[in-house]
Amino acid sequence: MTSYALHDIPDVENVTISPDARHVRIIDQTQLPMRRVFLDISQREDMYEAIHSLRVRGAPAIGIFAAYSMAVLATGIDGLPYGEFRDRLGQMGTYLDSSRPTAVNLGWAIRRIMAVVDAFPMKKVPEIVSLVCQEAIAIQEEDIGMCRKISSYGLSLVKDGDGILTHCNAGPLATSRYGTALGPLFLGKEKGMTFHVYADETRPLLQGARLTSYELHQAGIDVTLICDNMASLVMKQGRIQACFVGCDRIAANGDVANKIGTSGVAILARHYGIPVYVLGPWSTVDLACRTGDDIEIELRDGDEIKKKFFAEPTAPEGVACYNPAFDVTDHSLISAIVTDRGICRPPFTESLMALS
Ligand SMILES: CSC[C@@H](O)[C@@H](O)C(=O)COP(=O)(O)O
């Protein structure tokens, strides 16, 4: 195999690839905050499982993981002739892409890798594998840069001392480095600013409690954990000046799919006159989706509601559960969409198009 330079990216430890591109390493996010367990993954079934069971999660992190997974899988079949190599890798990409439906970054990253394969049919397969590895590294490096820009734009929307409500987790664990919705808070801290962050626990899988409060608390940022049904009260009490949330897919009209409960936060915020800012990389914008109605919402196992984090089941065995993992926030409830390309304000159809 042609050699390629693997950059050592300090501080980014939730998703990395081994120097020989034989495995992807992730922090198993299902075990946080109690245990910091790293998993080395080299088989496609385990890659699928890692995404499906949210060991690696958050739209940008899923994209980075998928790109590195494709690089590992490509490395494993680099002895094949080009046509067979392309077909096998394409099939594996389709398989990985089916692990979760809502976050656009998953398919986006896989398509980006396959575009490299398709661009060089005349090259030797080991050379193509090398280019695939470089592309995967580029996806992660670009994400770091995008998070930094998003953080900077986001910080311009708030002032020192503000109370910020966030939902789910859109921090470094969900991306690389700063994160998106949490990025301005980390950047503000670096600049000596203080924010009072209220983190929704985010039922049923508690990404807010387990991951957001963990990341912010570790960074020394003032964070207070609340149950999801307390958001209205803290808004009414005047503790919140802005809501910062991430996104899994942004439709062309500005409708936004994000973790289930986000639309409820936005509806409450509208009632109390609090701005709602959606922060995400441009790779999360899907102009092929006309509106939020075109976004597929992932349905997950009801046991996540009644069993997952409890020693004893919290509901009768056999009771029906409805467990959509995401909802769509109507564009009319969103004050701005903050991307690495700039801040989009309503009307979003025009402002998103202007940056495309
Ligand atoms: C920067 S991450 C943005 C979103 O992916 C995040 O807010 C979210 O909804 C994650 O859901 P998850 O089911 O934990 O993958």
Structure explained in plain terms:
The protein is α/β, with parallel strands linked by helices. The protein has two domains: 133 residues, Four Helix Bundle (Hemerythrin (Met), subunit A), CATH 1.20.120.420; 205 residues, Translation initiation factor eif-2b, domain 2 (Rossmann fold). Helices cover 39% and strands 15% of the residues. The protein is built from eleven helices and 14 strands. It has a seven-stranded mixed β-sheet with strand order 6-5-4-7-10-13-14. Bound molecules: 5-S-methyl-1-O-phosphono-5-thio-D-ribulose. 5-S-methyl-1-O-phosphono-5-thio-D-ribulose (MRU) binds next to helix 2 and strand 9.
Identify the overall geometry.
globular
- Whole-number radius of gyration? 20 Å
Structural class: alpha/beta
CATH architecture level-2 label of the largest domain = 3-Layer(aba) Sandwich
Ions and ligands:
5-S-methyl-1-O-phosphono-5-thio-D-ribulose
Total beta strands: 14
Looking across the biggest beta sheet, what order are the strands in? 6-5-4-7-10-13-14
* Count of discrete alpha- or pi-helical segments spanning 4 or more residues: 11
Outline the low-pLDDT stretches. 1-12
In whole angstroms, how far apart are the ends? 37 Å
Order of helices and strands: EEEHHHHHEHEHEHEEEHEEHEEEH
Helix share of residues? 25-40%
CATH C-level label of the largest domain = Alpha Beta
Strand content: 5-15%
CATH third-level topology of the largest domain: Rossmann fold
**How many domains make up the 3D coordinates?**
2
The mean pLDDT is 94
Corresponding CATH superfamily of the largest domain: Translation initiation factor eif-2b, domain 2
Please give the largest β-sheet. 7 strands, mixed
Pfam families: IF-2B (PF01008)
Catalytic activity: 5-(methylsulfanyl)-alpha-D-ribose 1-phosphate = 5-(methylsulfanyl)-D-ribulose 1-phosphate
Active site: 248
GO molecular function: S-methyl-5-thioribose-1-phosphate isomerase activity
